[in-house]
UniProtKB/TrEMBL annotation:
Cofactors demanded by this protein: FAD
Domain of life assignment: Bacteria
FAD-dependent oxidoreductase 2 FAD-binding domain span: 58-457
InterPro entries xref list: FAD-dep_OxRdtase_2_FAD-bd, FAD/NAD-bd_sf, Fum_R/Succ_DH_flav-like_C_sf, Fum_Rdtase/Succ_DH_flav-like_C, SdhA/FrdA/AprA, Succ_DH/fumarate_Rdtase_cat_sf
SUPFAM superfamilies attached to this UniProt entry: FAD/NAD(P)-binding domain, Succinate dehydrogenase/fumarate reductase flavoprotein C-terminal domain
A Pfam family of this chain: Succ_DH_flav_C
Keyword Flavoprotein: yes
Identification of the protein by name: FAD-binding protein
Residues in Fumarate reductase/succinate dehydrogenase flavoprotein-like C-terminal domain copies: 513-608
Keyword Oxidoreductase: yes
PANTHER family: SUCCINATE DEHYDROGENASE 2 FLAVOPROTEIN SUBUNIT, SUCCINATE DEHYDROGENASE [UBIQUINONE] FLAVOPROTEIN SUBUNIT, MITOCHONDRIAL
Length: 617
C-alpha cells in the first residue's frame, strides 16, 4: 500500500497501526474511516492530530473561478464523477467572480458585426502576441468562443442588449470594441460579467451533481511511476485533515498570484499555488514576465478603472493636493491627450503610459494618501455626462452607498492578471505532465505581452470546457494507477509539522513579499530594483524553508512558500528580459529588441535547479 508508512520511517509522525486509509465510493462520502496522523512536539509532546482520508473519483478540478467551474461542469456532462476543490468557498474566490469594470466582457466573433469572424479574431490575437503564443491554441479560442457564449446564454446569462438592432450587426447585443480588436465583439453583463458567468455555471454544476469541496487547499500533485497524474493531496483547514484524491485526470484552474502584491483587484488566496506546485513537478512555464496591471480604485472599495473613467478627465492629485500628471507628460502632449488614450492594462505602446508611471512614482516616493493611493475626483464633471459614459461604474458605486461626484476616492496601481503560466501543449489544455490539464490564469501559451480585451473570459470558457471534456474522456479510458509520489508529499507535510523551534512571523513575511513585488515588479522595473526584490524574497524563502507550522497555520505557511517561490521566478524572468515590451517596462533597457527577444522564456525545474530555455511560436 502506498502512502503512510510506519512510525520509524516518519520522524515524530505516528501512524496508528489499528487504523488504515480507506477508499470510499463518492456516494458514501461520510463513511470513510480516517487515518490519524499525530504530530508530537518534542518540547511538550502535545498531540495535534491530522486525519488523512482517501476519496476515489474520476476527475478532480482545482479552483473556483470561471475556468474551473466550467471545467467541472463539462467533465460532469461527459459522464465523469467530479470533485471541485476550491481554496475559498464557491462563488467567493478567484479573478472571474471579483472582476469588475465599466467594460468587463467576453470576446466572441459571431454575435455582432457582420464583418467579424473567427479568422479576424484569430488575426487580432496573433498580432498582439506574435512569437509568444501558440497559433493552434488561438485558433480554437477564436473558433470555440461563440459556442461557449451560446452555452452561457442557454444557462440564463443575460448579456447586455441594445434597444434596437444596428444595421451592421447580426444581433442586438451591446458590443464593445476592446483594445487590439478590429471590430466590436466583446459582450458583457453590466460590468459584472464574470460574476454572472460563475453564478450561472455554479448553479448548473451543483444541479448536475458535481461534488464541491471548499474551502480546501491543493497541497501537491500525486503521480504514478510513469510520471502521469494519479490524483492530488489537499488540506481541509477547517477540519484539519488531509485528503488524498485518487483520480486519473486533474484540471488545475488555481488562478494567478494576486496575493503577492499589496494592491490587487481580486482575492488574496491566489498565492501562485498551482504555478509553484507544477514547477516542482517539472511542468514547463512560459511568459512569466508579462502580467497585467493598471489604475484601480483601492479605497473605499476595489474596482478597476477602465478607459471610460479617464476620458472624463477626472482630477488626480497627490497627498499634497498637487495635480502631478503634468509633471510626467512630455511637453508635446497634453494631460487630456494622455487620459483620452488610456487603456487597461498598462502598456508602453501608447501615451497613456504616463498616467500609470506618474501614479506609481508618486506612491513609491511617499506622496500617497492614507490608504496608499492618490486622490481622484469626478466632482467637476456634470451628472449627465457621468451617467452617459460610466453607467456601470456609477451603479456599482451607488449600490455601495457612494456618489461618483461627491465620493472621496483613492487610486493605485493594482495587479490584475498573469499573462504567463503553465504551458498548454495541446488544444485540450494538457500540460507537459500527462493527465494534468491547466486552464484560466494558471495556464500559459495563449497570452503574450498584449492581448485583445475580452479574451481572458473567453479563454476560461473555451479551455475550461475543452479540459473538462478531455479529462472526462481520459477518466473513462483509464483509471488512476499507483500513487508513487504520495509518500514524499506526506513526508513534506510531516517535516512542516515537525516540532522544531522555528516560529516565524508569517504576517511579516507576507508583508515583505507584497511590498517588494508592488514596489519593484509592476510599472517601472530596473535591474537594481528587481535584484533588491529578489534579495527580500530569498530571505522570505529561507525563513519559510526552515519554518515549522501547527495545523492552524499550515495553510498559510504552505501558501507563502508557494508565493515566495513563484515570485522569485517572476522576478528572474523580468531580469532576464533586458528590453521593454508592452507592460514589461525596463527603465534601464527602454527599447524593444525583436532581434534577441521576440519569443518566450520556458522555465522548467530539474532536480533542485530551475533551467531557462527559449521558444518562439
Amino acid at each position: 500500500m502506498h502512502g503512510i508508512r510506519d512510525a520509524a520511517s516518519l520522524p515524530r509522525i505516528q501512524a496508528f497501526p489499528d487504523l488504515r486509509r480507506h477508499q470510499r465510493d463518492p456516494a458514501q462520502h461520510r463513511r470513510a474511516r480516517p487515518l490519524l496522523l499525530t504530530f508530537i512536539a518534542e518540547s511538550d509532546m502535545t498531540q495535534l492530530p491530522l486525519e488523512l482520508i482517501t476519496i476515489k473519483t474520476d476527475v478532480v478540478v482545482v479552483g473556483g473561478g470561471g475556468a474551473a467551474s466550467r471545467a467541472a461542469l463539462s467533465a460532469r456532462q461527459a459522464g465523469a464523477d467530479v470533485h471541485l476543490l476550491a481554496k475559498a468557498p464557491l462563488r467567493t474566490g478567484g479573478s472571474t467572480v471579483h472582476g469588475a469594470s465599466e467594460i468587463m466582457s467576453m470576446g466572441a466573433a459571431g454575435y455582432g458585426d457582420r464583418k467579424d469572424s473567427a479568422e479576424v479574431h484569430f488575426n487580432d490575437t496573433m498580432r498582439a502576441g506574435q512569437g509568444f503564443i501558440d497559433p493552434a491554441l488561438v485558433q480554437v479560442l477564436a473558433e470555440d468562443a461563440p459556442k461557449r457564449i451560446q452555452d452561457l446564454i442557454d444557462l440564463g446569462v443575460q448579456f447586455d442588449r441594445l434597444p434596437a438592432q444596428p444595421e451592421e450587426q447580426s444581433t442586438d447585443y451591446k458590443l464593445i470594441r476592446s483594445d487590439f480588436g478590429t471590430y466590436g465583439r466583446a459582450m458583457g453583463v453590466g460590468g459584472r460579467t464574470g460574476k454572472a458567468f460563475v453564478d450561472a455555471i455554479s448553479d448548473e454544476l451543483v444541479r448536475t451533481g458535481v461534488h464541491v469541496d471548499a474551502p480546501v487547499m491543493l497541497i501537491d500533485l500525486v503521480r504514478d511511476r510513469d510520471g502521469a497524474i494519479s490524483g492530488v493531496l489537499a488540506f481541509d483547514g477547517e477540519r484539519q485533515r488531509l485528503i488524498h484524491y485518487i483520480a486519473p485526470a486533474v484540471v488545475l484552474g488555481t488562478g494567478g498570484m494576486h496575493g503577492a502584491f499589496q494592491q490587487q483587484v481580486s482575492t488574496a488566496e491566489m498565492s501562485g499555488d498551482g504555478q509553484a506546485i507544477c514547477l516542482r513537478h517539472g511542468a514547463e512555464l512560459v511568459n512569466l514576465e508579462f502580467h497585467q496591471f493598471g489604475p484601480a480604485l483601492i479605497h473605499p472599495y476595489v474596482q478597476l478603472f477602465s478607459k471610460s473613467c479617464f476620458i472624463l478627465h477626472p482630477e488626480i492629485t497627490n497627498s499634497e493636493g498637487h495635480a502631478f500628471l503634468r509633471d510626467y507628460v512630455p511637453a508635446d502632449l497634453s494631460v487630456e491627450e494622455v487620459l483620452d488614450e488610456k487603456v487597461f492594462p498598462f502598456t508602453t505602446t501608447n501615451a497613456s503610459r504616463y498616467l500609470d508611471i506618474a501614479i506609481a512614482r508618486e506612491i513609491n516616493e511617499g506622496r500617497a494618501g492614507p490608504h496608499g493611493g492618490v486622490s481622484l475626483s469626478f466632482a467637476h464633471i456634470p451628472e449627465e455626462r457621468i451617467t452617459a459614459v460610466i453607467p456601470n461604474t456609477a451603479n456599482w458605486m451607488r449600490e455601495r452607498g457612494l456618489d461618483v461626484r461627491t465620493g472621496q476616492f483613492e487610486v493605485g496601481i493594482a495587479f490584475q492578471c498573469m499573462n504567463g503560466g503553465v504551458r498548454m501543449v495541446d488544444t485540450d489544455a494538457q500540460s507537459t505532465i500527462p493527465g494534468l490539464y491547466v486552464i484560466g490564469e494558471l495556464a500559459g501559451g495563449v497570452r503574450g505581452p498584449d492581448r485583445p480585451g475580452g479574451n481572458s473570459l473567453a479563454e476560461g470558457q473555451v479551455f475550461g470546457h475543452r479540459a473538462g471534456a478531455a479529462a472526462g474522456r481520459r477518466a473513462a479510458a483509464a483509471k488512476a494507477s499507483d500513487a508513487a509520489t504520495l509518500d514524499a508529499s506526506l513526508e513534506g507535510i510531516a517535516a512542516s509539522l515537525d516540532g522544531g523551534t522555528s516560529n516565524p512571523d508569517l504576517d511579516a513575511i507576507e508583508g515583505s513579499i507584497r511590498t517588494a513585488m508592488q514596489r519593484h515588479c509592476l510599472v517601472e522595473k530596473d535591474a537594481a530594483g528587481l535584484e533588491k526584490a529578489r534579495s527580500i524574497i530569498a530571505s522570505a524563502r529561507d525563513a519559510l524553508r526552515d519554518a515549522r507550522f501547527g495545523p492552524q497555520t499550515l495553510l498559510k505557511g504552505l501558501s507563502l512558500r508557494n508565493m515566495a517561490q513563484i515570485s522569485d521566478l517572476v522576478l528572474d524572468a523580468c531580469l532576464a528580459r533586458t528590453e521593454t515590451r508592452s507592460g514589461h517596462y525596463r527603465t534601464d533597457y527602454p527599447e524593444t529588441d525583436d532581434e534577441h527577444y521576440l519569443g518566450c522564456f520556458v522555465w522548467k525545474q530539474e532536480g533542485d535547479a530551475v533551467e531557462r530555455d527559449w521558444k518562439r511560436f
